[in-house]
């Protein structure tokens, strides 16, 4: 069984509560969404078809237990579920970055799902699958990538109406180079929000480029 893979690389985890951990990233090709801020549009096409067994062999070369499956939109290839299962069976600690437009309920329960809820200013609000919020487990995380003060207020209100912070940790992240991290930090403090504010560590380390 093959998946279309854009890149497999080893880096410092730059997002989620796993930030800072040496991690192998498996970036699958393709995404049905077009968030205005997407930093990974280069993965919308291209890449090569690779057998799942060969993906695991490549991951093993890096000698780390942390693996993140991302994209593009990894769940857009339905056989991604077999990759996630095989990685868990092999003993890796696996996280999945998903944009929330596809049902997460079939994802292997050993995987930590980082569910990105798309905001109004992302341009992709219409594609959120809201039932995903009912499938969260305590080892998952919900993430809001914020384009503006209006997005922040929208996310803050959604947190309270859906009691999301009671289900799992919540991440608030500014769109890189667009929302000031200092402003976001001050908004979070002013509203005493129960969220983890974060910036993309890999971009502080290496700037915005593929393979990091
Ligand atoms: C490239 S996406 C791939 C996974 C999936 N398609 C998704 O959107 O979650 C990985 C993460 O990077 C975030 N991201 C993309 N572009 C960004 C930017 N310019 N600034 C901050 N975060 C960004 C996304 O919101 C998402 O949380
Ligand atoms: N270093 C690093 N950490 C990341 N965490 C999530 C990423 C992603 O693109 O999904 C990512 C990425 O692209 N690079
Ligand atoms: S869902 Fe993820 S990969 Fe797709 S356009 Fe949005 S940020 Fe980029
Ligand atoms: Mg990235």
List the helices and strands and how they pair.
Blueprint lengths: L1 E11 L9 E7 L19 E4 H10 L4 E5 L9 H10 L3 E6 L13 E5 L24 E6 L2 H14 L7 E5 L6 H10 L5 E2 L3 H6 L6
Parallel strand pairs: 2-4, 4-5, 5-6, 6-7, 7-8, 8-9
Antiparallel strand pairs: 1-2, 1-3
The structure holds S-adenosylmethionine, the ligand Nc1nc2[nH]cc(C(=O)O)c2c(=O)[nH]1, iron/sulfur cluster and magnesium ion (MG).
The ligand Nc1nc2[nH]cc(C(=O)O)c2c(=O)[nH]1 binds next to strand 1 and strand 4.
The major β-sheet equals: 9 strands, mixed
Count of strand segments: 9
Given the structure, what is the number of helices? 5
State mean pLDDT (0 to 100 scale).
98
Class from helix and strand fractions: alpha/beta
Please give the radius of gyration in angstroms.
16 Å
For the record, the count of structural domains works out to: 1
Give the spatial strand order of the biggest sheet: 3-1-2-4-5-6-7-8-9
Shape: globular
CATH superfamily: Aldolase class I
Cofactors, ions, other ligands: S-adenosylmethionine, the ligand Nc1nc2[nH]cc(C(=O)O)c2c(=O)[nH]1, iron/sulfur cluster, magnesium ion
- Assigned CATH class: Alpha Beta
Low-confidence stretches: none
Order of helices and strands: EEEHEHEEEHEHEH
Organism: Methylotenera versatilis (strain 301)
Catalytic activity: 6-carboxy-5,6,7,8-tetrahydropterin + H(+) = 7-carboxy-7-carbaguanine + NH4(+)
Protein name: 7-carboxy-7-deazaguanine synthase
Keywords: 4Fe-4S, Iron, Iron-sulfur, Lyase, Magnesium, Metal-binding, Queuosine biosynthesis, S-adenosyl-L-methionine
């Amino acid at each position: 069984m093959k998946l279309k893979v854009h890149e497999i690389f080893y880096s410092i985890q730059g997002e989620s509560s796993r930030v800072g951990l040496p991690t192998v990233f498996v970036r699958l090709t393709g995404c049905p969404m077009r968030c205005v801020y997407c930093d990974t549009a280069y993965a919308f096409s291209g890449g090569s078809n690779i057998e799942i067994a060969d993906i695991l062999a490549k991951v093993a070369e890096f000698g780390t237990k942390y693996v993140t499956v991302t994209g593009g939109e990894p769940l857009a290839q339905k056989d991604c579920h077999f990759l996630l299962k095989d990685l868990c069976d092999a003993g890796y600690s696996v996280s999945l970055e998903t944009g929330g437009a596809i049902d997460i309920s079939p994802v292997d329960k050993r995987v930590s799902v980082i569910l990105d809820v798309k905001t109004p200013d992302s341009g992709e609000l219409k594609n959120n699958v809201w039932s995903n919020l009912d499938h969260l487990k305590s080892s998952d995380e919900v993430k809001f990538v914020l384009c503006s003060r209006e997005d922040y207020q929208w996310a803050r209100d959604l947190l309270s109406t859906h009691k999301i912070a009671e289900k799992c940790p919540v991440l608030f992240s500014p769109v890189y180079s667009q929302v000031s991290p200092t402003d976001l930090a001050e908004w979070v403090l002013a509203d005493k929000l129960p969220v983890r504010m974060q910036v993309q560590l890999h971009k502080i380390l290496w700037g915005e480029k593929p393979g990091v």
